[in-house]
Amino acid sequence: MNLKSQLESSLTSDQLRILRLIADEASQTGLPLYIVGGSVRDLILGAAIKDLDLTVEGDAIALARVLAKRHGGRVTPHSKFGTAKWFLPKELRTETSETLDLISARSETYKHPAALPTVKPGSMDDDIRRRDFTINALAVRLDGANFGELRDDLGGMDDLKRGIVRALHARSFIDDPTRMYRAVRYAERYGFKIAEETLALIPAARPLIEKLSAQRIRRELDLILEEWNAAAVLARLADLNLLRPIHPELTFDPSMQERLANLHTYRGLQHLSPRNVTEGERMRNSDLGWLLWLMSLSQEQVSALNDRLHFTADLLASLFAVSNLYVVQTSFVGLKPSQCVERLESYPIAAVEAAGYAANDPRVKECFDEYISKWRYIKPHTTGNDLKTLGVEPGPQYAVVLCRLRNAWLDGEVKTDEEEKSLLRDLLA
Ligand code: ATP
Predict the structure, then answer these.
(1) Ligand 1: centre distance to CA 292 (Å)
(2) How far apart are CA 94 and CA 10, in angstroms?
């Protein structure tokens, strides 16, 4: 089977130009060159191709160096893995990509269950067999006259057509238990079934989940929380009893499911007021996902989960904060804006955002949303300098007066500069 026309219609002309250029160089050096893995799967499914995984049967670093010599740019090699990052010269950069990864075909073996693999240079056959699922083990050859030729050693095409996620061998999940999470993620993403024989491998591998490092298991969960249907993935993982083995406090109940259900339609703080949100405040979808998922847990539960998953410091602070906001949220009903602001200012903005997103009571939602988009930016026109000019003795009174003026704006007691000045006169009288 040849996928030349799919390649030509799915890739941008810039991407194709680079591919052809690399393929030409590979042909001249006699190195078989392939796209492998997820990009082939997505090419066949007609889904958007995010990044091209280019694999060379031979020395990818040497190939990258020849390419840089001929076309410009520079190469960062990673000799341990036989991979090279080519920083493309200006003329070859595309809108979406300034670098290209070239990977040497390799074999991977596992010294212990759940350990990281031992990597050695290998043949394309090895490289295909080290992969997780048949649908991710397809390759398309690019060099010479073979451009577009599909290599399907393990029946991946058939599984793609039938919608099946199938592990490559019986030890797959024992070697790498993260693959169980990947299987569910792909199955739910594409609406595929997990092969019965693959599901049957789960019980033997489940006890090995606890051996996975915090970083590896958290990465899988991050990837899941980036999925458009994260809620479905987590529900399936809970059904398959793959959450509790990570940590007994990690569950997925209906209220969690409800909170995460529409995550993919959420555009972040932008919907509130794009001008009032700084770049640094924009949360990754996975972080918002964690907050929505875990907000109903107690502080102790969050702390216990952190011992297993090692959240980043920012996310952990937001998790503690949102767990607290979740408990006290109804106490915000009926408060004046100034009172809401006073309380919310001690919380990370991500926690307020998540709590506002998930709140069932519209009054709570409005309070948190207004705080994020408007209230927190409201300041009196009077400044400390003005107070100095008016002869007020510097000291704690400055903060008291300025806070009183700000609250007056927040609560609608003053609406104009004149009214603020009049209130200031009263306060200083
Ligand atoms: P996604 O669309 O989720 O990014 P992807 O298939 O591109 O999917 P990557 O995590 O970028 O996923 O991995 C690229 C390829 O590397 C996979 O398609 C698969 O062939 C292989 N791979 C990734 N993780 C594993 C793993 N844990 N075990 C075996 N092979 C893996």
Answers:
(1) 27
(2) 15
Of the options 1.10.760.10, 3.30.450.40, 3.40.50.620, 1.10.110.30, the CATH number for the domain spanning 163-246: 1.10.110.30
Contact residues of ligand 1, CB 6 A cut-off: 37-38, 53, 131-132, 136, 176, 178-179
Q: What local confidence, expressed as pLDDT, does residue 273 receive?
A: 46
Domains of the chain: which residue ranges? 1-162, 163-246, 266-377, 384-428
Residue among 270, 296, 293 nearest 282 (CA): 270
- β-pair type (193-194, 164-165): parallel
Q: Which CATH class is domain 1-162?
A: alpha beta
Closest C-alpha to 276, from 144, 376, 410: 376
Give the whole-angstrom CA distance, residue 80 versus residue 63: 16
The CA 221 to ligand 1 mean position distance, Å, reads: 14
For ligand 1, atom 17, name the residue with the nearest CA: 37
User: Which pLDDT tens digit goes with each residue over 291-319?
Assistant: 999 999 999 999 999 999 999 999 999 99
The whole-model pTM stands at 0.91
Cβ atoms of 358 and 292 closer than 8 Å: yes
How many Å lie between the centroid of ligand 1 and the Cα of residue 18? 22
